[in-house]
Design brief:
This protein has 395 residues and is α/β, with parallel strands linked by helices. It folds into two domains: 4-174, Phosphoglycerate kinase, N-terminal domain (Rossmann fold); 185-382, Rossmann fold (3-Layer(aba) Sandwich). Helix content is 36%, strand content 16%. The chain has helices spanning 34-48, 75-82, 95-102, 119-123, 126-133, 169-182, 198-208, 222-228, 243-256, 297-309, 329-343, 353-361, 376-382, 388-394, and strands at residues 13-17, 52-56, 86-89, 109-112, 138-141, 165-167, 189-193, 214-217, 259-261, 265-269, 278-282, 291-295, 312-316, 347-350, 370-371. Helix 1 (34-48) crosses helix 2 (75-82), helix 8 crosses helix 9 and helix 10 (297-309) runs parallel beside helix 11 (329-343). The chain is elongated. The termini are close together. The relative contact order is 0.12. The structure holds adenosine-5'-triphosphate and 3-phosphoglyceric acid. This is Phosphoglycerate kinase. GO terms for molecular function: ADP binding; ATP binding; phosphoglycerate kinase activity.
Amino acid sequence: MKTLNNFDFNAKKAIIRVDFNVPLDENFNVTDATRIEAAKPTIDAILAQGGSVILMSHLGRPKGAEDKYSLKHILKTTSEILGVPVQFASNCVGEEAQNAAKNLLPGQVLLLENLRFHDEEEAGDVAFAKELASLGDIYVNDAFGTAHRAHASTTIIAQFFPTSKCFGTLLAKEIESLNKVLKNSEKPVTAVLGGSKVSSKITVIENILDKVDHMIIGGGMTFTFVKALGGKVGNSICEDDKQELALEILRLAKEKGVQIHIPVDVIAANDFSNTADTQIVNVNEIPDGWQGLDAGPKSLENFEKVIMESKTILWNGPLGVFEMESFAKGTIALGNYIAASTQNGAFSLVGGGDSVAAVKQFGLEEKMSYVSTGGGAMLEMLEGKVLPGIAAILD
Ligand SMILES: Nc1ncnc2c1ncn2[C@@H]1O[C@H](COP(=O)(O)OP(=O)(O)OP(=O)(O)O)[C@@H](O)[C@H]1O
Ligand SMILES: O=C(O)[C@H](O)COP(=O)(O)O
């Protein structure tokens, strides 16, 4: 696996695919700069060796060159984080980008305009990839969040750097952390899978059944399992067409010796609202008109025991509707158990847009061993897929 260590960047131009797809507010201020901060070690290392850096990224899912998705909005934040002025090319290809790249001096940084302003990016167009490639001497992929996309800048471009391509520090760290869970894990291994739907997590569940000792299934997924087992779930979110699949997962888990833990009680509400009336009920006795929106106290006690005994913990998906204060207790408690277990020496990996948002919101980020910058990319790795962005560097 080639990393920055395999190259001398002195007087070289590194073209780096980063994932600066960050959230912006209505005034185009960056509201969460984690992904920019996460790319800093790679950029710093190359600049420190006397190299120069050309950054390319997408932002959002624009239809053509929509100004609201311009990367100029993140220029100031990027300069502040990197501690150097960052130049900007208002098109990622063409004369302006070529001149800016050509004139770039050691220690300087250039940010190219949103790659997705050109349809060729997502189409994986070879000529477009070649144009991007012509801007740099060494290709570095540090965009874990976009490594599951076979786009021009994440995958196709690599063919133009047969011997001069490598993983950036962030991408290498993401792969290493996932391997600590999926391949070289210390037992017992526990996966906590929450979120809203079985359908979006089913392939992950199936793939990791072979790798874990315990699986905690929470969040909205709970009710498809409970109903399949004959329980009453009231108005809780439930995918009736996935009940057979839920039973099959339970059967497979038994066969593989994986212990599945499902909430035994829930906080039920008479409305999907923070101010709804609530009651604690058994998970399989939810009255008509009520819906389970968070794990209950007995469930949390059970989960705490499992988490505290685990040596490797993977967490993807919240245990309840944590966006509403009334239903955030389960997710906060779970985060605290994982933090405590991590302090006891367990390795913990958190990934997925909403779980990472929850961990940040509740101030638990520093207490986890690793918080992934990837949403869809991490899920695809957990599904056992080889990500095209990673494969292109390994080639
Ligand atoms: N009991 C429940 N009923 C309804 N929705 C729930 C329940 N528990 C959790 N959710 C919702 O599930 C959503 C998160 O699910 P999701 O599967 O998207 O998580 P994730 O994998 O962390 O995020 P992402 O898919 O963005 O990477 C949250 O918005 C949360 O409110
Ligand atoms: O935020 C993400 O998950 C990545 O930046 C990929 O974005 P995409 O789903 O629009 O390809």
